[in-house]
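Thread title: Can someone regenerate the structure for this chain?

I was given the following input by a collaborator and told the matching structure tokens would be attached. They weren't. Posting the sequence so someone can regenerate them.
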Amino acid sequence: MHSNNNINNLSPAARSIVADYAKRRGIAPPQLDDFLNPKLALDRCNLPDAEKVLARLNRAAANREKLLLFGDYDCDGISSTAILLRFLGQRTSLTPAFAFALPDRRFDHYGLDLEKAKSLFCKFRPSLLICLDCGTNSAEAVTWLKAHGVDTIVVDHHPPSEEKSTDAVAMGNPKVHPAAQTSDLGDLCAAGLTLVLCNYLARAWQCAEKWDSAAATGLAGLGTLADAVPMSAINRSIAKSAITLINDRAVLNPITGLAALVPANGRRITQRQLQFEIIPAINALGRLNSAEPGVNLLTTANRAEAAAIATQCLELNAARKVKQQEMTVQASALAREVLEHHPQATVLVLADRRWHHGVAGPTASQIAESFGRSTILLAPNGTGWKGSGRSRNGDDLGQWIRTMKALGLVERGGGHAAAVGLAATSAQIPALQSAGLAVPMPQVDNAEPDSEILGEIDRLSPEEWLDVIELLEPFGRGNPYPIIAASNALCRSKPATLTLRDSGKPWGAKAEFQTEAGQVILPVWRDFEAALSSWSPGKRCHLELEVSKKAHNGRVYFNWAVSACRTSSTDGSGCDSFEEAELR
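Best answer:
Regenerated them for you:
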């Protein structure tokens, strides 16, 4: 595939598809290059309360105070912590003493609560705590720390609640500052906000030449692609820049741990590979174990240490895949049962004692896509239950879960429109499941579809489709993922059931199809029950497909994944599915 993001390298048919895609977004030809190749202009934006952050850090440097960075156990929190740690390390005159800590999903609640604040205070005795990807709604903890001589700086993107922190010396969260909400700063994830902050500090301290801003942008792109934030102009520029930078070995190699995760095979790393291979490997640490090695992975210069942590990431990710595949089969069966009796359910709230709460998020994402319904999955955690949810159809799941918290149906709960985390008691789960059947779901303003059909499969070759997708990436909310249609495709074989290697349980199906122009494809559909009932030799179907490619033993294979299928019968029956949830 081409790697210079130049539309002129495409075939005329491919250029026409890109032009149509832009036209649907109101992008005129003179603005097309800016859309395809957005420029990252960090100097034009400042983090809210950046001046307060600067003043407090200057005082910390003058007094040689001990700093503690506290992040989160997901890729955004890990990336944010790594960006600031690398910056502080490269600006070594700031302070001789800074450390970091992350919550442990197995034992801690999300973010900074009072219990965690006390344990951090006892272990590290900092005088300044910097919260990254958390802290906005940690009023009790921040107030306690202040009473014990610890100042708190918050760099966060989560919406404020009534319990938002007011004792922090600086609140670097655009969602808390009305003036910042007129820009797209509020769309940034924590890693993006940390990148903006470090750029501001580098200018203020006149140390830009000591700071590896390219590496920081690459790490901010990981957080951006991992955290389901809107793909607005600033996020698009960060993500696009990051993809380009990560493909530059001169930029990648100094991030020793990330270089150990990225295949050095000379092939371009795509958004899809980052989201389905690299980011899940980093996330696997916090899902099944401690996330803190992830920060070491992204900050160490020691190749042996980086290789060891990268191996741990890959091994844990392999274990996560097995757990997730089993959980997906079980959750799908529960979802079908709920929808059979309650087809108008607002949100699927599913719980099972066999599940692992660390895998609830990506599995909920897949169930939400498969059934076209926002989904919350809960698994046992000690004496209670812990889980995650993912939204669908423009649902504001974050607001819905905050309503559940206000109603007393969850012990803890928070997040944003696209993703939430929660904890509940066994007694609360039946009432929460009942609420999922009837309590209205608020909608995100001007919500767009999750995907968009680019055109018919026969208009381009598979390689050309991938060229177009590369040019249009990054995708996300506001720039829907591209789908390729295969209308009236002829099924030429009985569907073969795909089973889990360890348990033998089915997880999907594949069959041979021929397009109207004669192209033969073998698409995979994760909704194997729908495939078995609607695919048969001689039947024609309207397929919506995602394309990717994989190299194996010197050969390149094109993979077609079914995101939706509608049979050509008069009843128009069909079922939706989507391959999105970190299974690769």
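The two ends are 21 Å apart (CA to CA).
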